[in-house]
Amino acid sequence: MDNFDKKNSSDGSKALTFPAGFLWGAATAAHQVEGGTNNDWTQWEKDNAERLAKEAAGKWQTWQQEKFPEMLDPENYISGRACDHYNRFEEDFDLAKSLDHNAHRFSIEWSRIEPEEGKFDEQEIEHYRHVLQALRARGMEPFVTLWHWTNPLWLEEKGGCESKDFACNFAYYSQYVVSKLGDLVNFWVTINEPTSVISNAYVSGNWPPQKKNIFAAQKVYRVLADAHNQAYVEIKKINQKFQVGFANILHFIEPLNSNSFFDRATAKVFNYFVNRKFLKMTKNNNDFLAAQYYFHSRVKFPGKIKNDNKIISDMGWEIYPEGIYHILKNLKKYNLPIYVTENGLADVADEKRAEFIKNHLIWIHRAIDEGVDVRGYFYWSLLDNFEWDKGFWPRFGLIEIDYKTLKRKIRPSALEYAKICKSNEIDPPRVDERLSP
Ligand code: FCB
């Protein structure tokens, strides 16, 4: 840890300092916060809200149903006006600035920009120009996602992610947006979490278009990789200086029994399809790696996933900070700058969030210390928001939203995170938080 300053605490332990210029912020996505969208998800929500509310009782544990009774209400599953961030982005960025964020990730809603195929809406470009100007005015570096899962309706009619036109339509739209807004942006994230779409929409069949078809899943892998590759070329044609990547959800996958050859082999196969395949398919077309970490899985031959889930979020997701360290170490071989573009948890009571952030950052710092080039961290999410097929009940925000009044309230953990953002360092870990060698 020679390259970084260390500050001594009273017991002699050291503060962990991050590299100069480290980006600190939070992320959102258009459909989850803006409100008033009209895309394939909007449509799907209307058709499925009743069913999702009915199914919730069988899906979630009793404590979750008691804690979040709104999950039984169909209204929970309609994104509607969401956080009205479309109209309140300045207020939200004021809050982010007051929390010492120096960067922010958000997505542009394709269906607003290109409501009909080939017809672009200049007013919506103007809207996002104001969003970007608002960030710049507050000293926040924007990370702009071009596709965070939602498709315009005309594209959905052509088959959505399975359409043979998806890739060139996406590249065309990307080229348009970047040529209009590129003066305000350095970092472009083309596609958000391709493997989440593939697994949830085409393998488990929970998300629109709810297919359970391995051939469709393979096709979408190719389509999304092609979309990224084509968009990459178009964006770089506009300006070589742009930094372009895609957001990759990375699961920390371990064999349940490391002595078992079969468990180890199973872990390798999972690791390939979940974490590495898309990177391979987009080789040479990434200027940085955008890593997103939520999940730790222990796999057992022939493929059963078993988690301890001892410490969990409101959604029952295991909290396992060490996983981010292994993920980052595995990315070192690509020799590219890395930004953690999402990491967060649902925690309505805000009991675990501050520790969650701190512990993940301790492990990220350790990876940096060991030579991994991590340059930024974006907590998911700035605001409570609409969590896809789960709706509004999971509360991921640094800022709480009262969905009745749309009032914003900063959670205590956001203030703890703000201290880290401001000082660019974490207080010395307590003895029980120190990492084993
Ligand atoms: C990620 C998604 C993001 C949000 C978080 C909780 O996989 O990119 O939109 O839903 O999970």
Tell me what you see in this structure.
There is one protein chain. The protein is of the alpha/beta class and 437 residues long. The chain has a single domain (16-430), classed as TIM Barrel (Alpha-Beta Barrel). Helix content is 41%, strand content 16%. The chain has 14 helices and 15 strands. The protein has helices at residues 30-33, 40-59, 62-67, 85-98, 110-113, 122-137, 153-157, 166-181, 194-203, 214-238, 261-281, 322-331, 353-369, 412-423, and strands spanning 16-17, 23-27, 103-107, 141-147, 187-192, 243-249, 252-255, 289-292, 296-300, 304-306, 338-342, 374-380, 399-402, 407-410, 425-426. A hairpin with a 4-residue loop joins β13 (399-402) and β14 (407-410). The radius of gyration is 21 Å and the shape is globular. Bound molecules: beta-D-fucopyranose. Residues 29, 32, 192-193, 196, 249, 342, 380, 387-388, 396 line the site of beta-D-fucopyranose.
